[in-house]
Amino acid sequence: MVDRPKKPSALSATPGLAPQAQVTISHSNNRVSAVLPTGESIEVLLFGATIISWKDAKGGEKLWVSEKAKTDGTKAVRGGVPVVFPVFGTAPDHAATSKLPQHGFARTSRWEFLGKSTSESSSISGGGDDSVKLDFGLSPSNLSEESRKAWPFEFGLIYSVTLGRGILSTSMVVRNEGDEAWEFQTLMHTYFRVADIAKVEIAGLESSQYLDKLTTPIPSTATSPSASLKISAQTDRVYSPAGGPEVPVVIKEGGKETFSIVRDNLNEIVVWNPWEAGAKATADFEPKDGYKEMVCVEAGAVKGWVKLEGGESWEGGQVVT
Predict the structure, then answer these.
(1) 99, 125, 177, 297: which sits with the fewest CB atoms below 10 Å from its CB?
(2) pLDDT tens, 238-291?
(3) Catalytic residue among 189, 201, 246, 268
(4) Is 189 designated active site?
(5) DSSP class per residue in 133-166
(6) Of 298, 309, 312, 315, which residue is the catalytic one?
(7) Is 243:224 a contact under the CB 8 Å cutoff?
(8) Beta bridge partners of 250
(9) What is the pTM of this model?
């Protein structure tokens, strides 16, 4: 061994080296975390590829997760951004998905972490990464035997989660890897954290057709008024926004914009809040008055079915700011 009195400094301390996004895998290889040089961060479970945290540069949490949410892989996570595929809710009248549990198997299967990529920006002082993309994959080999029997089709999913400065982007690529055609629905079940649901209004759903899933005996279709939506009771609606996916759906609180959602190829928006009775009836919803601090505004393709022939692909996503 050669003794060098003037050892080279560590690479991380090299003058001019731009700060980089930090990506770590923790919790016995069950969780992927990413932090930007500017402080924004996300945490994603490999179980369900569920985003369970999205924090701004000051450390403020932007997603709501139940205090009783299971993050150990024993059941779907109550909160964050669960991934719905290949069925939204249950579909007893749709033969191919009739045997699947609510919202399908994507949110209760272990995904593979496929890797990361970053992009740099000169707008950050000193340069460095201003976004990081995490890719996750799911295929039949990842499914339980029960799920494989219930939905025996050949498929491949790539779910990309991109964290930027004040931006969270999620996108899904769905591919039919077999010869037989099949149909699916998909949705990003985002639980947004708010300070007071009484002060929340949602713009971008005005004069739009919606399906009210709480009406009986069958869901009814109606057209929303020209005013923004306010939540004052249990809500479970599927909207087809009149402006299309490119027109933002905006969550405001006290008149101030807190979130804006722009969609690509996800034509529906689901708005859900369990309110008092629904929260009490949901075992893993905690605290029971947590409905006052959350609202689900979920971008999806859930009205009807997307059909893929053998070898075909579909892609959709959302950008939240």
Answers:
(1) 125
(2) 999 999 999 999 999 999 999 999 999 999 999 999 999 999 999 999 999 999
(3) 189
(4) yes
(5) EEEEEE-GGGS-HHHHHHS---EEEEEEEEEETT
(6) 298
(7) no
(8) 203, 260
(9) 0.92
